[in-house]
């Protein structure tokens, strides 16, 4: 995805044998595939499916860092829902919370982007 090299990014992702990895690692692979669809190719439905798969693969426990990972995956689903015009109140709240509290600039950017898209679709200003 870096520098618009979407084909190269997909090739690299497809070269990994995800089924041989732990579910958490599989989830990150699905998440990357989701972002390629959502931000690179405009395949919003495929991006939403991949984001949900990523979240579902990573039902996280309470190890250190689990809360940050949970926010990452939930924000990915919320962004995908916003880009698909399916942003629920829960999704919008997730995007608002992430934008307000995350310490990761890229995650804040994604959350703000999703909120902007949802606002435009609702007829508001972004």
Task: Give an overview in words.
The chain is built from six helices and no strands. With about 130 residues, it is mainly α. The two termini are about 25 Å apart.
Give descriptors for this structure.
single chain; 126 residues; mainly alpha; 6 helices; 72% helix; 0% strand
List the helices and strands and how they pair.
Elements: H1 6-15, H2 23-41, H3 44-57, H4 66-83, H5 89-101, H6 105-121
- Net shape: globular
Listing every helix as H and every strand as E from the N terminus to the C terminus, the arrangement reads HHHHHH
Average pLDDT number? 90
**Separation of the first and last Cα atoms:** 26 Å
Number of domains: 1
Q: State the share of residues found in helices, binned by percent.
A: over 70%
Q: Structural class, from secondary structure content?
A: mainly alpha
Strand elements, count: 0
Briefly, what is this?
With 126 residues, this protein is mainly α.
